[in-house]
Amino acid sequence: MVELMRDAVRDADVDLAPENCAPNLTLIVTDDGRALIAGMAKANARLFERLTAQEMSKLRENPGPVWSWHNTQTKRADGGPVSEGEVGRAVIVRGAVMSRLSSPVRKEINGGFVVLDLESIDGFTLKQIAEFAVMRGLAQTRDGQSGKFGFESILNLFGDGKPTEGLTSFDREYLSSIYRGGNGFTYAQKTRQVAQDVARKEKSTADDAE
């Protein structure tokens, strides 16, 4: 399973640390996901420390069969530390250069967690499970919405219809685009870049198929 997940990261052209590195993506398969998360929160609250009260409540109430969350950290655009403010999740960035063309901060995912109910994976291949976990663990994505999602995606694995065999061209380009490029993009800039990269890749794939 670990090798399949590492292969999926490579296929998405995302930087991959050497083997035996400190893991930052955790996949758990269990008989009762909700009970497991409740137990984890009680035993080690630090695993959920970056979630807001609303996010934690939503995670606890999720009926499954999939749960995922991320521990994130705000840093300066150059990777330097920031100070926590006293209001909400405001941060203090010392020496920041303010600009409408770039953001003085960036948000890094320090760890991703994906939990699956055991019964829900019956009939799926290890490849499908591994690549679904990579898609949910490397980016803050959600389950695909049937009829509203414009691309084939491994995110629809637990939805209606025939599931894909693994990461699709859309999935790989989406992940690649998120991790591609420098730092300091504003939210609007990064969103536009991802959308343009995905659309360009899908057009190229369609042209090749003709």
Describe the secondary structure blueprint for this structure.
Elements: H1 2-11, E1 25-30, H2 33-43, H3 53-61, E2 66-76, E3 83-84, E4 91-92, E5 105-117, H4 126-138, H5 169-179, H6 187-209
Parallel strand pairs: 1-5
Antiparallel strand pairs: 2-5, 3-4
Describe this structure in words.
- Residues 62-83 are annotated as: Disordered.
- The protein has 210 residues and is an alpha+beta fold.
- It has one domain (2-209).
- It is 37% helix and 16% strand.
- It has 6 helices and 5 strands, in the order H-E-H-H-E-E-E-E-H-H-H.
- The protein has helices at 2-11, 33-43, 53-61, 126-138, 169-179, 187-209, and strands at 25-30, 66-76, 83-84, 91-92, 105-117.
- A hairpin with a 6-residue loop joins strand 3 and strand 4.
- Helix 1 crosses helix 4.
- The protein is globular.
